[in-house]
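TL;DR need structure tokens for one chain.
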Amino acid sequence: MAEAFVSAPLAEAMLAADPTLRPAFEAKLAADPAFAADPQARLTWFAERLPNSQVRVYPVRREE
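>> reply
TL;DR here they are.
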């Protein structure tokens, strides 16, 4: 996921758009103190749930 200043608003939008996402996120926060204390892990959690997620995929140009 991108820098936190870009990712955080996207995560908020995801929470607003998907009513099942907030309970899952809050359950993860409650169950995993290390996750709750790690802002990057929380943003990664959202990145993994992006539709058509392109996390850790690099664009490659192919010469023909």
